[in-house]
Amino acid sequence: MHAVAAARSRERVVALSGGADGTVRAWDVATGAAVGRPMAGPACAIVAVAAGPGAGGELLAVAGDQEGMVRTWTSPAAPLAPRTRRTGAG
To answer: FRET label pair with 28: which of 53, 66, 78, 90, CA 20 to 30 Å apart?
Structure first.
């Protein structure tokens, strides 16, 4: 595990973990249970994650990988196709 963040969604407090395998996972803080499916990214390590509430109360998740790609998701419980952006890292 390379990165961790936590935030409150409509229903619960969720922790996000980012790992060397390029996935971001969501966890229910109260129960320790996984929330939804892992959010898959590239095959390189996730080095940063952040989370916060969206305008509608859904959870927003952001992850950055070691190659400078940033991905965003809404609601890890039902992840949508991530939006990606390459940063200026080099």
So the answer is: 66
Q: What DSSP character marks residue 44?
A: S
**pTM (two decimals):** 0.75
Beta strand pairing call for 59-65 and 46-53? antiparallel
86: exposed, middle or buried (C-beta count within 10 Å: 0-12, 13-18, 19+)?
exposed
Beta bridge partners of 8: 13
Amino acid at 64: G
Distance CA 18, CA 10 (A): 22
Residue pair 29/14 in contact (Cβ under 8 Å)? The answer is yes
